Amino acid sequence: MTRHHPDQAMLLDYASGAASEAESLLVATHLTYCPRCRSEVDELECLGGTLLDSIEPSLPAPSSCDEVLDRLGREPRPTSRPVPPQVLPQFQGLPRPIQRLLAASDRVPAWRRVMAGLDVLDLPARPPEGAGSMVRLMRLQPGVAVPQHTHRGEEFTLVLAGGFSDDTGHYQVGDIASCDGSISHRPAADLGEPCVSLVVTTGPVRLASPIGRLASLFVRV
Length: 221
Ligand SMILES: [Zn+2]
Hints:
The chain is α+β, with helices and mostly antiparallel strands. It has 2 domains: 8-82, Arc Repressor Mutant, subunit A (Orthogonal Bundle), CATH 1.10.10; 102-216, Jelly Rolls. Helices cover 29% and strands 23% of the residues. The protein is built from 6 helices and 11 strands. The chain has helices spanning 8-16, 21-31, 35-55, 65-71, 96-103, 210-216; strands at 112-115, 118-122, 134-140, 149-151, 155-161, 163-166, 169-172, 176-179, 188-189, 195-201, 205-207. The chain has a 6-stranded antiparallel beta sheet with strand order 1-2-3-10-5-8, with helices on one face. A 3-stranded antiparallel beta sheet has the order 7-6-9, with no helix packed on it. It has a two-stranded antiparallel ribbon with strand order 4-11. The two termini are 31 Å apart. The model is unreliable at 213-221 (pLDDT under 50). Residues 2, 5, 30, 34, 36-37 line the site of zinc ion (ZN).
């Protein structure tokens, strides 16, 4: 059971189709783990359909959930079983929304080493508005910690495997950690297995210590 969820505004943006591509990926991936947020999104979508009816009285009542989604500008649910995407062996085991994104891309992204014990993989999704924003997977080896840092924008980290702790708490598979410029943290992977996360940021990382800032001149975090 996940303990850390997207906030109401993020779920509402997702349900109404107003979320950015990166935010949609984050929420859709969280929903694969979280029945509580899935039912909340279902309720918001149906509420949206009811509101739509009240402002468009000429339209007949939606006969199905697909029609509600259609009126909200969202993709209708497929009527037949979807064809599973072609997933490369190294990406098997990732949640379906990320697999679909990778399968639809022309290029195959690869992991790259940032520092000892930390690898990142840039995903082929449009990042949010703002300089330094990004959408990527991050893999921390067991027990490894990212240098203390803060952010110029917001950062959302959704755990896909393993777990990590930072100054704000402990996060396990399905949990979303969110932080902004008011928080300085040092995420450290749990012992046991590597911690793999989906990370969406809306601004650049700022390493906190002078040594960290010096290192950032040489290492692209
Ligand atoms: Zn949730």
